[in-house]
Design brief:
Blueprint: H1 3-14, E1 29-31, H2 38-55, E2 58-64, H3 72-83, E3 93-99, E4 104-110, H4 119-135, H5 139-153, H6 164-208, H7 215-219, H8 224-259, H9 268-283, H10 295-309, H11 315-326, H12 332-342, H13 347-359, E5 375-383
Parallel strand pairs: 1-2, 2-3
Antiparallel strand pairs: 3-4, 4-5
Helix pairs in contact: 4-5, 5-6, 6-8, 6-9, 8-9, 8-10
Length: 384
C-alpha cells in the first residue's frame, strides 16, 4: 500500500460519521416520518401559508423518523438557519421539530418573536398542549393545537380555519374540565348517598310513625311518653341532616355549572343531587329505620337513664334527670359526665353543656422558501 493510500485510509477512519442532513424546504410542513395523512398535512400547510400571507410570520414543521444521534437543539438550530425562516429584516420565523423515535420535540423561535414567544411560554405549549395529545398518539391534533397556541400568542389579528379549532382547543378544554370535575363529583357522590338515605328515612317516618296516637302507639310496641321523646328527637335529627346535606350539595354543584358549556358530563353532578332529593326516596323504600334513628335507641337510652339515676342520691335530682330526658334533652353520656365531675347531677351545668355541644354540631343535631430570518437558540424542548 502506498503512502498516499495509507493517508486516505487514516483520514477516512478519523472522519466523523455523516451528520443528519437538513431536508430541502418546499412547504411549511415536512413530514419525513409519515406521521400525518395527506389531508392533515394539507390542512396544516393551508393554515401556515395563510398565516404567513396575513402577518409575514413564517412557521414551519419538520417531522423526522430519528435524530440519528444528533443533539435535538443543535439540529433544530441548523434546520432553522438553513431554511432561513422568517423575513430577513424581522427574524420572525419559527420551527416545530418532532423526532419520532426519540419521542422528543422542540420549538425554535427566531430573534424577532422571542419577545412574545418566550422560552417559558413555548415550554408550556409543549408540556400542556402538544404532549397530552402525543401521549394518545394524536399527532395531528397535538401539532395543530400547539401551532394555534403559538399563533394566538403572537397577538396578530388572524382567524384560523374554524375546522382546526374544535379538534384542538375543545379537546384540551374537555380534559381540563374532566380533571376539574373529579373532586366535585366525588363530593356530590358522597353527599347524594347520605342525602338520599335520609330523605328515604324521613318519608318512612312520616308515613308510618309521625301521626300515631293513643292505642296506635301502644299497638306499635311503644310507650307513649318515650314515643313523644323519640318524635322530638327524630324530627330534629332528620331535619338537621337533610338541611345540612342539601347545603353541602350546593358546594360541588356551583363550580360544575360553569363546566356544562364545555362538557355535558358536568350535568351528572346536579343530576345526582336532584336524584337524591326527589327520585331516590321514591324508588328506595326502606322497611325500617336504622338503629340511631329508631325508637329502640330511645328505649335503650331510657334504660341507661334508669341505671344512671340509681347513682344519684337526691330524689329531686333524679326527677330533674327524668324531666330533661322526657323534654328531649337526651344525652346519657353527658349526664354521666356531669355526675362524675360534680359528684351529683347539676341541672344548670348539664343544660349549659348540652346547648354548647348541640350548637357545635355535637349531640343529636347533627412553493415555499425561507425569507432570511435568523435564530439564536430561543425556544423550548420536551418529550412524550
Amino acid at each position: 500500500m502506498t503512502v498516499k493510500n495509507l493517508v486516505l485510509v487514516l483520514l477516512c477512519c478519523t472522519l466523523p460519521l455523516a451528520a443528519l442532513e437538513v431536508p430541502p424546504l418546499s412547504a411549511p410542513v415536512t413530514d419525513l416520518a409519515g406521521l400525518l395523512s395527506a389531508e392533515q398535512a394539507e390542512q396544516l400547510n393551508d393554515l401556515l401559508l395563510e398565516y404567513e400571507a396575513e402577518t409575514s410570520n413564517q412557521f414551519a414543521v419538520l417531522i423526522i423518523p430519528s435524530l440519528s444521534g444528533e443533539n435535538l437543539e443543535s439540529y433544530s438550530i441548523e434546520v432553522a438557519a438553513t431554511w432561513a425562516l422568517g423575513q430577513a429584516d424581522k427574524d420572525n420565523g419559527l420551527l416545530l421539530l418532532v423526532a419520532l423515535k426519540e419521542r422528543r420535540l422542540r420549538i425554535e423561535v427566531g430573534y424577532g418573536l422571542e419577545g412574545v414567544l418566550t422560552d417559558a411560554f413555548c415550554g408550556r405549549v409543549i408540556d400542556n398542549t402538544i404532549v397530552p395529545y402525543f401521549k394518545n398518539e394524536q399527532y395531528f391534533e397535538g401539532i395543530s393545537a400547539g401551532l394555534l397556541e403559538l399563533i394566538r400568542q403572537t397577538g396578530d389579528e388572524f382567524s384560523p380555519d374554524p375546522a382546526l379549532v374544535p379538534a384542538t382547543r375543545e379537546y384540551s378544554q374537555q380534559v381540563g374540565a374532566y380533571l376539574f370535575l373529579i373532586l366535585p363529583f366525588l363530593m356530590i357522590l358522597v353527599v347524594s348517598i347520605f342525602l338520599g338515605r335520609n330523605r328515604a328515612f324521613s318519608r318512612l317516618y312520616k308515613r308510618q310513625y309521625e301521626s300515631l296516637k293513643g292505642e296506635e302507639i301502644r299497638s306499635a310496641g311503644m310507650e307513649p311518653r318515650l314515643y313523644q321523646v323519640w318524635k322530638k328527637r327524630i324530627k330534629l335529627q332528620l331535619k338537621g341532616r337533610v338541611a345540612g346535606l342539601a347545603m353541602a350539595g350546593a358546594i360541588p354543584i356551583l363550580p360544575s355549572l360553569a363546566m356544562i358549556p364545555i362538557t355535558p358530563v358536568a350535568l351528572l353532578i346536579p343530576g345526582l343531587y336532584l336524584s337524591a332529593l326527589f327520585i331516590v326516596p321514591l324508588i328506595w323504600r326502606p322497611k325500617e329505620l336504622p338503629y340511631n334513628l329508631s325508637y329502640k335507641r330511645i328505649e335503650d337510652d331510657y334504660k341507661k337513664l334508669r341505671e344512671l339515676m340509681k347513682e344519684v342520691s337526691s330524689e329531686e335530682e333524679r326527677q330533674e334527670m327524668l324531666k330533661l330526658f322526657l323534654a328531649g334533652y337526651v344525652s346519657i353520656a353527658l349526664m354521666r359526665m356531669v355526675i362524675q365531675k360534680k359528684g351529683h347531677f347539676d341541672r344548670k351545668y348539664y343544660m349549659t353543656s348540652f346547648r354548647a355541644s348541640s350548637s357545635s354540631g355535637g349531640g343529636s343535631r347533627s412553493s415555499f422558501s425561507g425569507g432570511g430570518g435568523s435564530f439564536g437558540g430561543g425556544g423550548a424542548s420536551g418529550g412524550w
